[in-house]
Design a protein that fits this description.
By secondary structure, the chain is α+β, with helices and mostly antiparallel strands. Helix 2 (29-38) crosses helix 3. A hairpin with a 4-residue loop joins strand 2 and strand 3 (61-62). It contains four helices and ten strands; from the N terminus they run H-E-H-E-E-H-H-E-E-E-E-E-E-E.
């Protein structure tokens, strides 16, 4: 009996560590992109600066790549970490060719300074899908919108994923 009670207590404790995707509000693809765009000019007309230890605005999201994606997707401040965004609780793997506006391209491997990164897909640069435009929070530059090839280069660790609370 004590073993069952202990097991139940452990399960309850573990379930509170990571909120399931259903706990987050639904966000449409267009709303996610609209929220992502706000950080391009939120700093008095300039991009929000990058920081892993600072928080932006009244919502208080971390100013790094995963905090930025969390803000755009309404995943709760201060934001999930990159590894969380790539897990089955928060997202579902898709093929790079299936990317739609508001999906993410993420590399959850490595350490913070050497590898892990996540961006928000907007659209393909051409009909051949040789690159795509994405919203990104990156060191030195802060929030940017630019053409990228993450996930399209052989051997890189980036993968396409659809956030579970994104609708449409």
């Amino acid at each position: 009996m004590r073993v069952l009670a202990l097991a139940a207590a452990v399960l309850v404790a573990l379930s509170t560590l990571v909120a399931p995707a259903q706990a987050y509000p639904a966000v449409s693809r267009s709303e996610l992109i609209s929220r992502a765009k706000t950080w391009l000019t939120a700093n008095n007309g300039r991009p929000v600066p990058y920081s892993q230890s600072s928080y932006w605005g009244s919502e208080g999201y971390r100013q790094d790549c995963s905090g930025y994606v969390s803000m755009a997707a309404k995943l709760g401040a201060p934001g999930r970490i990159t590894i969380d965004l790539a897990d089955y609780v928060h997202s579902t793997g898709i093929a790079m060719t299936e990317l739609r506006q508001g999906d993410i391209v993420v590399n959850p491997e490595g350490d913070d300074a050497n590898g892990r990164h996540v961006v928000i897909f907007d659209r393909w640069v051409d009909q051949y899908r040789t690159g795509y435009y994405a919203y990104e929070q990156r060191s030195v530059y802060g929030t940017t919108y630019r053409a990228l090839r993450y996930g399209l280069v052989a051997g890189d660790k980036y993968r396409a994923r659809k956030l579970n609370n994104v609708t449409g």
